[in-house]
Amino acid sequence: MSLQQRNVIKLILVERFGNVIADVGDIIFQNPSSLYTIVKSADIPLSKVKEALSVLIKYNLATFKLNTDAITAIYSLNVKNILLMLRFPKFINLIKAKFDESYEILVEEILLKGCLTASELIIKVTKRLQEQKNVNILLQELKDNFNSLITAKYVMRLSLQSLKVDELFLLPNIDLKEILAVLNGGNDTLPDAGVYWTINSDRFHQDLRDQLIVNSVTNKFDENMGELMRLLLQQMYVRTDPWVSSSNPIPILEVKEIVKKRNTHPQLVAFFEQYVAILEQDVTGIIRKVGEASGGSFQVEMKHIFTQLTWEAVEEIVNEKFDSKASRIFRLVKSRHYIEPEQIQNLVMIPAKEVKRILYMLLEENFLVVNELKRSATSLGPSKSFTLFHIRLTQVIRTMIELCFKTLYNIMMRRCHEKYLNKRLIDKKHRVDTITHGMRAQGISGDSVLDIEEMITPPENEILERIGKMMKKLSLTEIEIDDTMFLLEMYLMYE
């Protein structure tokens, strides 16, 4: 656990839950602790610590287990799930793109609450949508949509006991009459009380992974090739576990028939064999042919895909962090695997002094590794050993992840700083917007609303516009950094 990661996690907890929960989380991040140790270390009242731990556990951000004395509970932080919160906007956008608004709100409510029973979720979403007419139809629609999310494995049961995989996706017992009674002011006990549901992050990551592959293929070739890749991935899931490094063989004639039937990409239909041949021969090693009968079958090589994409990302980062000369040297070492400094100087056409400076800069930043090998006893010459530079990709990946955490921390600190500096103005804008929204909801318009809006002066509007642009830019940068981290995580998972 690194210092940069610790800083990012604490800021995430501060932004979403406040300082008390962030302090408690920071203590159990450093070292899993008992309740007594946390209270003593944090200098926070016992009641506040208990409340903080209950919130962290509810959102599956902390876990606990019995100590060796079988009496004391030891609490530890679920680091992975905290970092996952940075990816929640992508999850919501993914559902929005695949389904409609009600699906999006169902997922958003689960993310906001951590976990909910199915009936509680439908009640909250119904109230949020504010659909008073045809409420029975709306409830049935929400029930069907929620069941669809479970069937598609975007949502799963929150299990305190070890359940089989199939049991995690058993449809809940939802009684719409009971839900309607609660909405009408009743206090009936709902039949699914105690059965909680949460987000299945693996399913969302599967979609994000596929999206990343399809987008990279589309950018490298064209939309027709991207569609071919998407169909190959779809057919892969029919016969293969989604997270294997190499899929089971996919008959290419099946894919061809699907392309013809859908007929959404005429050029792909017309030149299907050529597209398949180009994809097979690509250096990325996206697919591999197995068998010759009836056009043959192809395996999707997930490990090769993410190895190649990761190398491309590393080379781009080297170029951005250092310069084009460093990028040239890095690519040369990659292509030769092991290479002596003198060979690098001869091949890159850069002055020897500059090559040495760049090599040791890359070495210092952990992008290169040095191996010193002893010469044989019979070899002639004054030197008893020689130096070889090479790249350990896994080490480079971990260095890049640290850089990502450092950048994330700087971005989040800048956002907090801007909010702190302009807190008065932001609060004023929020109050004005709340008042005008309430007036419009009551049917008030015209000069009355305009007078309230003019409480924000033109200079203040300019400042708010500048802040808005900066916040948007910082958010986009945060998303791009998370994209890079997701790619690196995928590489480490398949490695």
Automatic annotation (TrEMBL):
<dbReference type="InterPro" id="IPR036388">
    <property type="entry name" value="WH-like_DNA-bd_sf"/>
</dbReference>
<keyword id="KW-0804">Transcription</keyword>
<dbReference type="InterPro" id="IPR008806">
    <property type="entry name" value="RNA_pol_III_Rpc82_C"/>
</dbReference>
<dbReference type="InterPro" id="IPR039748">
    <property type="entry name" value="RPC3"/>
</dbReference>
<keyword id="KW-0240">DNA-directed RNA polymerase</keyword>
<protein>
    <recommendedName>
        <fullName>DNA-directed RNA polymerase III subunit RPC3</fullName>
    </recommendedName>
</protein>
<dbReference type="InterPro" id="IPR055207">
    <property type="entry name" value="POLR3C_WHD"/>
</dbReference>
<dbReference type="InterPro" id="IPR013197">
    <property type="entry name" value="RNA_pol_III_RPC82-rel_HTH"/>
</dbReference>
<dbReference type="Pfam" id="PF05645">
    <property type="entry name" value="RNA_pol_Rpc82"/>
</dbReference>
<dbReference type="Pfam" id="PF20912">
    <property type="entry name" value="RPC3_helical"/>
</dbReference>
<dbReference type="GO" id="GO:0003697">
    <property type="term" value="F:single-stranded DNA binding"/>
</dbReference>
<comment type="similarity">
    <text>Belongs to the eukaryotic RPC3/POLR3C RNA polymerase subunit family.</text>
</comment>
<dbReference type="Pfam" id="PF22536">
    <property type="entry name" value="WHD_POLR3C"/>
</dbReference>
<dbReference type="GO" id="GO:0006351">
    <property type="term" value="P:DNA-templated transcription"/>
</dbReference>
<feature type="domain" description="DNA-directed RNA polymerase III subunit RPC3 winged-helix">
    <location>
        <begin position="314"/>
        <end position="391"/>
    </location>
</feature>
<keyword id="KW-0539">Nucleus</keyword>
<dbReference type="GO" id="GO:0005666">
    <property type="term" value="C:RNA polymerase III complex"/>
</dbReference>
<dbReference type="Pfam" id="PF08221">
    <property type="entry name" value="HTH_9"/>
</dbReference>
<feature type="domain" description="RNA polymerase III Rpc82 C -terminal">
    <location>
        <begin position="175"/>
        <end position="309"/>
    </location>
</feature>
<feature type="domain" description="RNA polymerase III subunit RPC82-related helix-turn-helix">
    <location>
        <begin position="10"/>
        <end position="64"/>
    </location>
</feature>
<comment type="function">
    <text>DNA-dependent RNA polymerase catalyzes the transcription of DNA into RNA using the four ribonucleoside triphosphates as substrates. Specific core component of RNA polymerase III which synthesizes small RNAs, such as 5S rRNA and tRNAs.</text>
</comment>
<comment type="subunit">
    <text>Component of the RNA polymerase III (Pol III) complex consisting of 17 subunits.</text>
</comment>
